[in-house]
Amino acid sequence: MKRIFAIWMLSLLILSGCVYVADSKKIYDDNEKIVTEGDTYTFIDRIGDVLEDEASLEVKGFYGTETIYTFENIEEITITITQDVNKGRFKVVLINPQNEITVLNGTSTITMSDGKYRIKIVGENAFATIDITIEDKS
After folding, report:
1. Does residue 14 sit in helix, strand or coil?
2. pLDDT at position 74, please?
3. Residues ≥6 apart with Cβ < 8 Å to 88
4. Per-block average pLDDT, block size 10, for the chain (138 residues)?
5. What are phi and psi of 16, to 5 degrees?
6. What DSSP assignment string belongs to 61-106?
7. How far apart are CA 72 and CA 118, in angstroms?
8. Which residues, in sequence order, are bridge partners of residue 48?
C-alpha cells in the first residue's frame, strides 16, 4: 500500500511540474499573465548579471516572464535596449502602475508618474542576448 501511495505521489509531482512548464509557454501573447506581480519562467541556460543601472544577459530556451527591474519615485529615466534574438520570440516590456504594457526596443525616455513600474523580459523558446542600460534623469 505504501508503494502504491509513493508511486501516486511521484506521478502527481511530475504532472504538476509539466503544468508549470506548460503555463510558462503560454505567456508571450497573454498580457494579463505578463502584468502579474509574480514571475513564471524556465531557462535551459541564463548567463549574465542584472546590476542597478545595467544588465547583460544571454538566455537559451527561455519561456515565460521574469521581472528584472522595479522602479518607484523616479521622475524620468532613459532605457536603452540592445537585443539579438537567434531563435524563438523575445521582448522587453515596461509595465506602468495601471498595468499597461509598452514594448521597449532601442532607446526610450520615459516620464513616470507616482507608482510602481516594472521591466520584464518575456520569451517563448527564446535564444537571445540582451543588453540594457538605465539612466535616472531625476
Report:
1. helix
2. 87
3. 62, 123, 124, 125, 126, 127, 128
4. 52 46 72 93 95 96 96 92 97 96 94 93 97 89
5. -65, -35
6. EEEEEEEEEEE-S-SEEEEEEEEEEEEEEEEEEEE-TT--EEEE-E
7. 9
8. 57
The amino acid at residue 116 is K
Check residue 73 and give its pLDDT: 86
For 29, which DSSP code? T
Q: For the chain, which residues make up each domain, given as ranges?
A: 2-136
DSSP 8-state class, residue 35: T
Q: How far apart are CA 58 and CA 46, in angstroms?
A: 6
Reading the block at residue 135, the C-alpha cell is 539612466
Global pTM?
Answer: 0.81
Specify the pLDDT at position 25.
63
CA dihedral 105, 111, 115, 120 (to 10 degrees): 10
pLDDT of residue 13: 47
Amino acid identity for residue 27 in this structure: I
CA dist 13 and 15 (Å) reads 6
* 2-136 placed in CATH 2.60.120: yes
d(CA 104, CA 88): 17
Residues in the chain: 138
pLDDT at 137: 75
